[in-house]
Design a protein that fits this description.
The protein has helices at residues 2-7, 56-67, 69-74, 87-96, 110-115, 147-161, and strands at residues 25-27, 33-35, 45-49, 78-83, 102-105, 119-120, 123-124, 127-131, 137-142. It has 162 residues and is of the alpha/beta class. The strands form three sheets. It has a five-stranded mixed β-sheet. Strands 1-2 form a two-stranded antiparallel ribbon. The longest helix has 15 residues, at 147-161.
Length: 162
């Protein structure tokens, strides 16, 4: 079943509220391997998929997560951004905008496929997943245009847990 879900292109394969978060490993902006299994089920997570470093909506979204980072920390949440940009691009993006959270490089888009993040035409989708301390997805938000709203939605979902 996991194999079918992993490769299925239909919307049913998308990770939904109530699902256990899929675990994966990807390189972070420093080239170190980040293994989600080490944090899933231990603390709340905000995992957001975005199309591309340094594009206007993606930059606004990342900076909005940065500006609210202390609030996420107070709620015990780890913020993780994922795109298909490479490690060097993520490092540059993080330094340029003083991003204090983890950016993961999914160059072959395997994790994007694992979560079933939809595309808009040829553009990779922008979806945020909020995961509780038990490793269960408690909220998803999908919006290509409103990057900053992803932050507000994630904070609201986490606050409901407290």
């Amino acid at each position: 079943m996991a194999f079918l879900q992993f490769w299925s292109p239909n919307a049913d394969a998308q990770v939904k509220t109530g699902d256990k978060v899929p675990v994966f490993s990807l390189p972070d902006q420093d080239g170190k391997t980040f293994d989600l299994a080490t944090v899933a089920g231990k603390q709340p997570l905000v995992i957001y998929f975005y199309p591309k470093d340094e594009t206007s909506v993606c930059t606004k979204e990342a900076c909005s997560f940065r500006d609210s980072y202390e609030e996420f920390k107070k709620l015990g949440a780890l913020v993780i951004g994922i795109s298909s940009d490479n490690v060097a691009s993520h490092k540059s993006f993080a330094q340029h905008h003083n991003l204090p959270f983890t950016l993961l490089s999914d160059t072959d888009q395997q994790v994007r496929k694992l979560f079933g993040v939809p595309k808009t035409f040829v553009i990779p989708g922008r979806v945020t997943y909020v995961v509780d301390k038990r490793g269960i997805v408690i909220h998803t938000f999908n919006s290509m245009r409103d990057g900053e709203r992803h932050v507000a939605e994630a904070l609201e979902a986490l606050k409901k847990q407290h």
